[in-house]
């Protein structure tokens, strides 16, 4: 909802310099929150030294961030793949 309101404000009053500075500040805060969430999700993988999890994380990053593949397509492949890998690893560990 907030993003929609900000987009409407920008469309109507985008030429105002003060609004541009506000939106730059909001976007910087959003990037900071995204990086914080990334590190919070990554820390358990690093602490457990989960190599497969880190490989999947790196593959998704490369696919979305560097190769610019669409997010829904990458997640449609990565999510079932990671669940299947986790299932087979736990199944093998209990056997």
Can you offer a commentary on this structure?
By secondary structure, the protein is mostly helical. The chain has two domains: 1-48; 50-95. Helix content is 87%, strand content 0%. It is built from four helices and no strands. The protein has helices at residues 2-13, 17-47, 51-66, 71-94. It is elongated and about 65 Å long. The chain starts with a helix and ends with a helix. The mean pLDDT is 86.
Brief characterization of the structure:
With 95 residues, the protein is mainly α. It is built from four helices and no strands. The protein has helices at 2-13, 17-47, 51-66, 71-94.
Task: Spell out the blueprint of helices and strands.
Elements: H1 2-13, H2 17-47, H3 51-66, H4 71-94
What ranges have pLDDT less than 50 throughout 5 or more consecutive residues? none
> Major beta sheet, specifics?
none
Strand tally: 0
Integer count of domains: 2
Write down the secondary-structure element order. HHHH
Mean pLDDT: 86
Which structural class do the helices and strands define? mainly alpha
Proportion of residues in extended strands: under 5%
Question: What is the radius of gyration?
Answer: 19 Å
Terminal CA distance reads 49 Å
- Which range best describes the helical content: under 10%, 10-25%, 25-40%, 40-55%, 55-70% or over 70%? over 70%
Number of helices: 4
The dominant shape is: elongated
């Amino acid at each position: 909802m907030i993003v929609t309101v900000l987009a409407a404000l920008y469309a109507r009053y985008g030429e105002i310099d003060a609004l541009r500075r506000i939106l730059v500040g909001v976007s910087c805060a959003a990037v900071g929150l995204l990086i914080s969430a990334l590190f919070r999700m990554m820390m358990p993988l690093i602490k457990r030294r989960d190599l497969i999890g880190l490989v999947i994380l790196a593959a998704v990053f490369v696919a979305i961030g560097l190769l610019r593949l669409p997010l829904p397509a990458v997640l449609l492949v990565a999510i079932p793949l990671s669940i299947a890998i986790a299932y087979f690893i736990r199944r093998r560990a209990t056997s």
